[in-house]
Amino acid sequence: MSELLANDLITPDAGEIPLLSLPSVSILKAAPLTRLSLRCREATQKDAGAAFGAELPMSPLSNTTAAKRAALWMGPDEWTLLAPEEDLKTVFDGIEEKLSAHPHALVDISDRSEAIIVSGDKAAWLLNTGIFIDFSLEVFPVGTVTRTLFHKSPVMIWRIGADAFVVEAWVSFMDYVSGLLVQSATELEAA
Amino acid sequence: MSQPFRTEKGGRIDRAEQLTFTFDGEEMQGHKGDTLASALLANGVHLVGRSFKYHRPRGILTAGSEEPNALVGVYRNGDQTPNLRATQVELYQGLEAISQNRFPSLGFDIGAVNDLLSPLFPAGFYYKTFMWPHAFWDKVYEPIIRSAAGLGKPPKNPDHDVYGNIYAHCDVLVVGSGPTGLAAALAAGETGAKVMLVDEQAEFGGSLLSEVSASIDGKDPADFVTETVAKLAAMDNVTLLPRTTAFGYFAHNFISLAERVTEHLSNPDPKLPRERLWQVRAKEVVIAAGAIERPMVFPENDRPGILLADAGRTYLNRYGVKVGHKVLVATACDSAWQAAFDLADHGVDVVAIVDLRETPPESLMSIAEARGIRVEAGCVVTGTLGRKRVKGALIGRLMTSGQVASGGQIACDALLMSGGWTPTVSLYSQSRGKVVWDSEKGAYVPGVSVQKERSAGGAKGLYGLQATLEDGYAAGEEAAKAATGKSAKVTYASATGGEAGSGGILGALPHDRNAARVKAFVDYQNDVTAKDVKLAVREGMHSIEHIKRYTTTGMATDQGRLSNMNALEIASGALQKPMTDVGLTTFRQPYTPTTFGLFAGVSRGDFFDPVRKTPSHDWVVENGGVFEDVGQWKRTWYFPKNGEDMHAAVARECKTVRESVGLFDASTLGKIEVVGPDAAEFLERMYTNPWKKLAPGRCRYGLLLNDAGFITDDGVIGRLAEDRFHVTTTTGGAPSVFATMEDYLQTEWPDLNVWITSTTEQFAVAAVQGPKAREVIAPFIEGVDLSADAFPHMSVKQATFCGVPCRLFRISFTGELGFEINVPRRHGKMMWETLAKEIEKHNGTVYGTESMHVLRAEKGYIIVGQDTDGTVTPQDAGMTWAISKNKFDFVGKRGLARPDLVADGRKQFVGLLTKDPKVKLEEGAQITTAEQPATGTPAEGHVTSSYYSPALDRTIALAIVKNGHALEGKTLYVPMPTGSIPVEVTSTVFYDKEGARINV
């Protein structure tokens, strides 16, 4: 996992057995996180970033990271803010306090989705079995984040290394997503 | 006798590796590198199938994917894949193939009687014959046609193979790997562009693999292929895909490829997919699909042993197989002569070259002479002899009058023919390009590019090895430049030999036979003859589109690649119009037949659609609950205990809820968090109800309409703070309500400072309902005074459940005292198990969706989508109380004022009680005013919900009935096959009409 972004947010869930463990690709369940959905207008964005501890990324599909913080661009007025699980209250209250005078919406979505870490030489190939995005590094560099579809499930893809991706799906879709990824990787085991 | 038609040497097969296979049970030998077709020919087998309509014996005609005759079934793992083209089936050890469309055997086929009766089966036969009487269609005609139609038998078992899918992007996609495609791929690859090279065949090289009389840079063409492929394979930016058919060209340069991954293997690793669907977005495409040879349309041109000349050459040079020992070559162009020469060089007796042209090129004549080959110039084949194998040909001499004089017979055991070449424009046509007629080439060639593609080489009617190579390099350079802006210097290879020939003929050849009695086939697979095309014209079909459908010419698996041009010429002659005025049919996807498995991909079994489970799922499985599918969700339907059936389980669950307490998983309900200073204003505009005055900590039922004024969703909405609402929607309506809200926010009210976030899956929700609900939850809840006064019906508060933060609602969908506890999803399992244990102490029950439905029906609560069908207004539903009278506007307000929505006679929501309390109505049953309505009487309405009610110990039903609200106390009827059921119209509330139970 040495290629992971310089943040300590995304870590494999300690108690979990890998969903897939091949020489060329592995799938690990990520540990729980604080996830907040932040919606606000331009005038509020600077303050929001300051309160959160990482600037809000302004260019589409990009991310910004700081120590134990990551902000992911989801739309022109929408960000997903990531922090360690135990920081939920601090982060939530901190932003609410700082933005009390500005129109905004902050919603706890920590439990809405689960994340898996797909990494290895064949990680991009494996994702491409169900995602139509071009994952070449020129087009989808490290740090790129997007919502998209994996077969019939909405997912969020965040590239945290040249060969490492975070795949998030709403909890009830995760069996489908991880199950199909594992199934599609079967051919990598062929002699 | 083993492989009597195999050459001594030559070909690309591995002579050291012998493979055993069976065809119709007969064991034969072949070699690695053979196709099933080449191996059969090596064994002297030409008869491989029976034709579609006349069951005529048919042989292998081509060496490519356009093969119309040699359709076979191949067995694997006890099942059979039908309709594979033997020319594309690679031989492997133990391959089991069967012929098709014959009974009882290939040699003796009862259906062949159709050939003798053929005067009875003209074009349009089915249209003409099976018109009357109408009633015969379903029971007689269709079953007969169905059993006679089609080739091959569908496999019986579920597909045991898996199919892969991959999305890919590239700068340049090159389709076809003949001289043009290889050159294009190399030129594009050298620039560093991302290149994909695909070819439907097992080996790259296309025509170069069967070219032995030319050289490229002084080398054998096959060696040029080997070297070029090695160069390409060494480039990281090039992906090589043999056995891969580009079968569909869609919008925005989206091309689909079918890769056959294991089809050629004797014992494929079960971990590998059988086939893989590639969905490729290419910046630029080079179509190097080449050209295919045209059959000549002469009488009996379909006998086994008659092949296209280039196929004969391919079998010889690439597969080391002689198509016969005494071969007659019939042609109208130069290229077939080379096939004759190559065969002669392998010791085959070429009995004659029959060239339609009066004066074939001198250069060819002299080579023929040197080899001692008889040449009959200005002659055509006017018929053939033999039945299961051609035995000879009738020759006719063309006279200046245009008549044909008999020129005797020539004996042969194989006949090679060439009517010239047709560029493969299928993919170009799929890309929406319009082909244009090139009179010099006598062919339709690609016109203006509609998408980012260019055809090169044979695919645009350019022939000759040097020219096609050069065109390929140029196309590759151009495509790479267009895609990436980069160029590179690539050294062009130069070819000697393989010059472009001349000549070619379209349409039916003249003959001296009785035109009414002979069959000269235009479309082999669909048994369409020259006669049929002319008949179609005589019967009024003047457009090629009509002729195609009337005769089925060009509707075979090759989509008319072999037949279209000949059919067009024949139609043009019959219509006495230039060919370009007859039109040309469009080529559509897929280019060659493609398996259903490839399209289905992973969408099967548990992965057909996401299966969404709630946090209680595992507990329910362990405790024997029965699930029902609600959209993608698995919801618990009911919990049978001690062998109960559904009726008994539901009756017990309902009774227990009303008497003590029940626990229900409500996690699937849609949840939307509406946050911002304008949150109340937004809800005012979306829902019919008023929201601004709703105090934080209170809830209200919300009704959502569409613009037309019809009910589309409902749910309870709790105000958590001045600027924060917790909205619930129906389970099925969650995505559409969210999308509708987002749509209004972005397009109508971007000025509102409010945002919505889906929290459906953020929370697990447990509903605890029944008189003892308070006692059940009390031990676990902190932070709320649960007393009726402090926390009345329709309240919401943030609290904790077992120390976990929760949103506690006091709401009810049963009419009983009820609470819904929302905890973060990860605690859902803990909450469910805690409560399930607790309710046992109170003799409570877990209950499922069926009981939930019964309990709410007893109270007359509607279920949107069951009691409403998209045409029900709040007024119809008796819910005018939910419409705020004081609001300026809300979605649907103007719709509600439409004249037809306020007119009399609308269907309204009512309750129904059958006169016999034991009779349960059918949901969906029609309702009438007359007990025995005359046939054609319109229904007054229909039953929307119907249950046995344990609380009333009788059946109850909800319905929508014309003017229903005014009919309370009246008797209506529900006519059923077993007799009319009298019902009384009642209020929709059957139980606890005062609503006392909810407020305890």
TrEMBL record, chain A:
Domain of life of the native organism: Bacteria
One Pfam family cited in the UniProt record for this chain: SoxG
SUPFAM superfamilies linked: Folate-binding domain
Record InterPro entries: SoxG, TrmE/GcvT-like
Protein name according to UniProt: Sarcosine oxidase gamma subunit
Organism field: Roseibium aggregatum (strain ATCC 25650 / DSM 13394 / JCM 20685 / NBRC 16684 / NCIMB 2208 / IAM 12614 / B1)
UniProtKB/TrEMBL annotation, chain B:
Domain SoxA A3: start-end pairs: 519-601
Residue ranges of domain GCVT N-terminal in the record: 617-887
Alphabetized UniProt keyword annotations: Oxidoreductase
Xref: SUPFAM superfamilies: Aminomethyltransferase beta-barrel domain, FAD/NAD(P)-binding domain, Folate-binding domain
InterPro entries for the chain: 2Fe-2S-bd_N (IPR042204), BFD-like_2Fe2S-bd_dom_sf (IPR041854), FAD/NAD-bd_sf (IPR036188), FAD/NAD-binding_dom (IPR023753), GcvT/YgfZ/DmdA (IPR028896), GcvT/YgfZ_C (IPR029043), GcvT_C (IPR013977), GCVT_N (IPR006222)
GO BP field: tetrahydrofolate metabolic process
Pfam families attached to this UniProt entry: Fer2_4, GCV_T, GCV_T_C, Pyr_redox_2, SO_alpha_A3
FAD/NAD(P)-binding domain ranges (all copies): 171-432
One Gene Ontology term of the molecular function aspect: sarcosine oxidase activity
The Aminomethyltransferase C-terminal domain, residue ranges: 907-992
Family: Belongs to the GcvT family.
Protein name: Sarcosine oxidase, alpha subunit
